[in-house]
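Structure first, sequence second, as always.
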């Protein structure tokens, strides 16, 4: 991935936050030709490393073809168009062009398939609890009839990614002045209020969070 130094994100908490907020990842694998699957994944910190797990349909060739092979995961965060009119620095000379801001995480690793029924049951239980948590009437795995659940579990295969490298690229106007970054946030918020860009508000919040991390890391 092309990585200008301005946009490299290495904070594990920031990387984890993006991946957990955007769990529907693209998994790319090689072979006779490149192939890509989109699937929800569960990402956790494991000490100083990472644990990434998921499941696919047994009929999906992914778990057979990619077993023990290197894979690439793409987690896409908020993204939106940035107008040069949002930069205060443009006013005196007009030297500014449009761009696109975004945040993403790429994960490199090796895929392992898991067919153990108890592992699968525990995994789908944790996954369900995470996504159903906070709902007024959450659905529980135990709500399904036992025989039906057994049939469903036999139809899936678990996957785990043994992570070798995690790269974050948060292109959030870090190469601009503080005044220009503020201008971009205000522009995104305006676009969000008029619904010109669906993800504008999320991107503005990502920029503000990055600004807060920058200030916290600055020498006191």
């Amino acid at each position: 991935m092309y990585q200008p130094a301005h946009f490299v994100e290495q904070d594990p908490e920031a990387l984890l936050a993006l991946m957990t907020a955007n769990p529907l990842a693209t998994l790319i694998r090689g072979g006779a030709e490149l192939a890509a699957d989109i699937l929800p994944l569960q990402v956790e910190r494991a000490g100083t490393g990472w644990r990434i797990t998921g499941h696919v349909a047994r009929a999906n060739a992914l778990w057979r073809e990619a077993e023990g092979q290197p894979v690439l995961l793409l987690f896409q965060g908020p993204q939106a168009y940035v107008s040069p009119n949002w930069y205060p620095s443009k006013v005196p000379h007009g030297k500014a062009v449009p761009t696109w801001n975004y945040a993403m995480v790429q994960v490199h690793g090796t895929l392992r398939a898991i067919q153990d029924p108890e592992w699968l049951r525990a995994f789908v239980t944790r996954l369900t609890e995470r996504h159903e948590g906070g709902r007024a009437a959450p659905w529980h795995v135990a709500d399904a009839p036992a025989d039906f659940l057994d049939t469903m579990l036999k139809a899936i295969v678990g996957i785990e990614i043994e992570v070798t490298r995690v790269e974050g690229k948060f292109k959030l106007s870090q190469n601009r002045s503080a005044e220009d970054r503020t201008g971009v946030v205000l522009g995104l918020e305006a676009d969000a209020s008029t619904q010109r860009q669906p993800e504008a508000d999320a991107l503005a919040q990502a920029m503000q969070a990055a600004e807060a991390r920058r200030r916290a890391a600055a020498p006191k």
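Margin note: The mean pLDDT is 95.
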